[in-house]
Each structure stands twice: as C-alpha cells, then as structure tokens.
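for the writeup, i need someone to sanity check this before i put it in the appendix. the sequnce is what the collaborator sent (i think, or maybe the updated version? ugh). structure was predicted straight from it, no edits. if anything looks off just tell me and ill rerun, i have time this weekend
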Amino acid sequence: MAKRRIVLALGHRALGTNLPEQKKRVAETAKVIADFIEAGWQVAITHSNAPQVGMIHTAMNEFGKLHDGYTSAPMSVCSAMSQGYIGYDLQNGIRTELMKRGIYKPVATILTQMMVNPYDEAFYTPMKPVGRLMSEEDAKAEEEKGNYVEEIPGKGFQRVVASPKPVAIVEIDIIKAVMDADQIVIACGGGGIPVMEQGYHLKGASAIIEKDRAAGLLAKEIDADVLMILTSVDNVTLNFGTTEEQAISSMNLEEAKAYIEAGQFEFASMLPKIEAAADFLLYGRNRKAIITSLEKAKASLEGQAGTTIRES
C-alpha cells in the first residue's frame, strides 16, 4: 500500500533570520517534521528564504565593492547559495531528530531550478524588495545596471525584483526518485532558482519566486495527498485587520474563488497561499491543502486547527 505524501512549506518563522536563530529554529522545526515521518508520511519539504537571500545578496554586493576583480552576485546565484545554506541546517537537524527516535532515513537537499516564462507580466512590474537599504547614489548605480529600485520613505532605497509564476521544476525527476525510494527530500527552497531556457542553456533570471506557488507546483508534481503551508498565523481570516476579522476553519474551491474575487486576501502574503492551494486541488482527487502555523501543524492535519481547503 502506497504511503501518504505531504509537502511541508516552511515560512520564515520556522527558520529564523540569522545564523544563530536559524540553528535554534531548525532544531524545533525538525521535531515537527520528524513527527510526520514517524507517523508514516512521506515528506517533501520546501522553505522560504527571504532573510537569508537578502543577507547573501548584501554580503556579495559589499564584497564586490571592496575587492578589485570581484563583482556582485546575480540573484539566481544568491538563491542557489540560500538553498544550500538553509538545506544544510535543515537536513542535519532532521537527521539528528530522526536518529534520536531510532529512525534511519536519508535526508537530502536538492538544488532546484524553476523554469519561468520570460514573458511573464511580473517582469514588467517588479515588486519584491530584496537586499540592503541604499543611498541615493547607490540606487542610481543600480538603475544604471538596468535594475529596478524604489524609495523607502525615511529609510533609503531598495532594489526590487520580479516574482514570476513557476512553470516547471527542472529537477522533478530526481525529486520523484528520492520520494519513490521512501526518503526525505528538501527541494524548491526559496521558490527555486528562477531560470529561463535559452537553447540548451538555462539562464538565471533576476527574480524571486513565491515559495508558496513553488510548493503548490511541487505537491502537484509528486502527487501529494496534502499540501501544508506553514506561516505566522494559525488560520486564514476574513476581513483581516478590521473589527470584523473572522478566522475560518475550512473552505472549498468555490468559496476560495469568491473570497479572492472579493479581495479578501492580501496580495503579497495570503493570496499566493490560497492560489497555490487551489491550483494543487484542481489537479487531483481526495487532496487537501492546509494553511496554519508550525505549532498547529499536527492538530491541523487531524482537522482540529488551521484552515483546510478541499475541492468541494
């Protein structure tokens, strides 16, 4: 009998924002992941990388400025670095927790490239801030390179990149092989490294993919039973930030579509999660998507917490 499969999409709270905090958070997160594995689930893990990729981007830029013969690193390279850095801590944290429980399973991080459409409208309207705050002089230098910059009132300037939708996972066959071998995989970290096909070559794109959209695509491609998006809130809410704010425990696809059309979900945070969940559910039967916090993950799987989204 085939094991049940779950994709766990970790938000930044599960990882922290700096080196010491990441070590501590990952140790706590690994316990929750190990609980799922111990319960018999096949687990694929993806994760956010916003603080980490920003830190790497800033460090590489500053290094290039201070040392002759070195240049700043492209966003695609920074994304690849963040996958390795986060994956290193995650796979070791999970391995440690599993071994404490007498479970001996390999955990591997797969450096994952994500194909994007070069004509995606997102490239014409960049809106994902990344990296350090800059002076006006540095901002002009960035614009001369062809990069987009926006002013943060009272703080300075910051680079802004596109956030295109993922089209295909380049390493999907490798990911499937690891899953089919009943092993644990960490993939599509930070939404994956955005690339565009140019003949036989894959060229890195100056962009950041929403990790929730990547998680939905990963869950669809490996035919997962559950997509669980772990974020900073226990439930999806309606009328967020108002006196009429209301947490909801469940919704179906028709309701989700109506909420989206009514503008219920914030564009840069909750909306990608709902859209990723809906897309995942459209391509399979008897699936469910769950949006909740790390602390409520296990209870949410049992229907006792979080927000569950089903086809009907």
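DSSP finds nine helices and 17 strands in the chain. The first strand starts at residue 5 and ends at 10.
thx in advance!!
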